[in-house]
Design brief:
heterodimer; A: 110 residues; mainly beta; five-stranded mixed beta sheet; four-stranded antiparallel beta sheet; B: 118 residues; seven-stranded mixed beta sheet; 1 helix; 11 strands; globular
């Protein structure tokens, strides 16, 4: 299972773009990169997944360079409600276990 | 579609007592998972059901924890007797499939049960 490293915390202001980079040097060939978001008092929520290049949905964009040893989650024009913990997950243990690290606590201020 | 429902949302019990947590997965999801985060630690896998069968319970901390999923619908997680170190948030998740390619799309988590043992 690939180990991931991401910043512990990030501060931002409303309307700014937030970019969270996750390092995963030992990513395996068939591993996907997945990001979850967790609000206080709620369970984690899937937000985006990718394998290579760029993936975009209504919530975020995920940029993955050619070597796949890192990935960047981009949250455009954040609002106060985007304050949450963001987890970068790579691969699956035994094909179904999710391995959460410490995550990145993003705090958006007015 | 209704999400994953967990009950109760909070529970405060004394050390030595028994507590039962319940999880109702999304209808039709054969796969049900329990995770927990104890204070100051990361979210950790506890076990995985496929319908009513325990597929993997390697994350269960000890034999004071008993999970069941009778009939392959809702699941319960019983802690008996509870200890102080069991305090934390217990999450349940469900998915239609459990595979490397699609599992992450299918995981839906409940809001968790916050268990406090005093």
């Amino acid at each position: 299972l690939a180990k991931t490293t991401q910043p512990i915390s990030m501060d931002s202001y409303e309307g700014q773009e937030v970019n969270i980079t996750c390092s995963h040097n030992n990513i395996a060939t068939n591993d996907y990169i997945t990001w979850y978001q967790q609000f206080p008092s709620q369970g984690p929520r899937f937000i985006i997944q990718g394998y290579k290049t760029k993936v975009t949905n209504e919530v975020a964009s995920l940029f993955i360079p050619a070597d796949r040893k890192s990935s960047t989650l981009s949250l455009p024009r954040v609002s106060l409600s985007d304050t949450a913990v963001y987890y970068c997950l790579v691969g699956l243990d035994n094909d179904y276990k999710l391995s959460f690290g410490a995550g990145t606590t993003v705090t958006v201020r007015a | 579609e209704a999400g994953v429902t967990q009950f109760p949302s909070h529970s405060v019990i004394e050390k030595g007592q028994t507590v039962t947590l319940r999880c109702d997965p999304i209808s039709g999801h054969d796969n049900l998972y329990w995770y927990r985060r104890v204070m100051g630690k990361e979210i950790k896998f506890l076990l995985h059901f496929v319908k009513e069968s325990k597929q993997d319970e390697s994350g269960m901390p000890n034999n004071r924890f008993l999970a069941e999923r009778t009939g392959g619908t809702y699941s319960t997680l019983k802690v008996q007797p509870a200890e102080l170190e069991d305090s934390g948030v217990y999450f349940c998740a469900s998915s239609q499939v459990a595979s490397r390619d699609r599992a992450n799309y299918g995981y839906t988590f409940g809001s968790g049960t916050r268990l406090t043992v005093v």
